[in-house]
Amino acid sequence: MMLRGKSVRKKIINFIELVKSFIFAHGLITYSDGNSRLMDLDGITQKLGYFIVIETKTFYMDEIEIKLAAFSLLMELYTQLSRREIYIVATDSNDRIDPDDTIWWVNLESIRKLDNEDDRRHVHVHRNQMHKMTRSEFNFYANRQLDLNSDPFYDAKDDALK
Question: Secondary structure of 40-60 in the HEC alphabet?
């Protein structure tokens, strides 16, 4: 659905269609037992060729688990995209969507430095290995990263020397 007002168009998210799209997509490639072979990325944005990729997880006993297939995909994106940041964002509950709700995040580079693979080759990250902030603060931070890193003329050293 599109709303028009003063020549501004805004698309409203239809969550029922989002669920239907998920079901549709995950039925396209299946195992012989009917289970989906697909996975999804939770979020991706870009500005002038600088990408931010987000994978979200819910804590269980103060840890998140990233399955090998998803971690392999994120590592491949990390390797292939030269101008990118990949964040793993965790929450206690997916119902926590207010700007002041707390989230925890870590970038993929930090996870690569950890030795958190278990015997099933999943990656586990504990809450205390992540940064804590509000959703609003993360929104500001990620948008700032997009603004700074998408500018081909921006040099962080210039800011540091001021």
Answer: CCCEEEEECCEEEEEEEEECE
Establish how many alpha carbons lie within 13 A of residue 55's alpha carbon, considering only the half-sphere containing its beta carbon.
Answer: 23
Spans of all domains in the chain: 40-153
Say which residues have a Cβ less than 8 Å from residue 3's Cβ, sequence separation at least 6. 9, 10, 12
Whole-model pTM? 0.80
The pLDDT of residue 66: 94
Q: In CATH terms, is domain 40-153 a member of 3.40.1350.10?
A: yes
What is the rounded CA–CA span in Å between residue 27 and residue 23?
6
Pairing of strands 50-58, 84-91: parallel
- Helices H / strands E in the chain, number of each: 5, 9
Q: Closest Cα partner for 132 from 106, 108, 114, 113?
A: 106
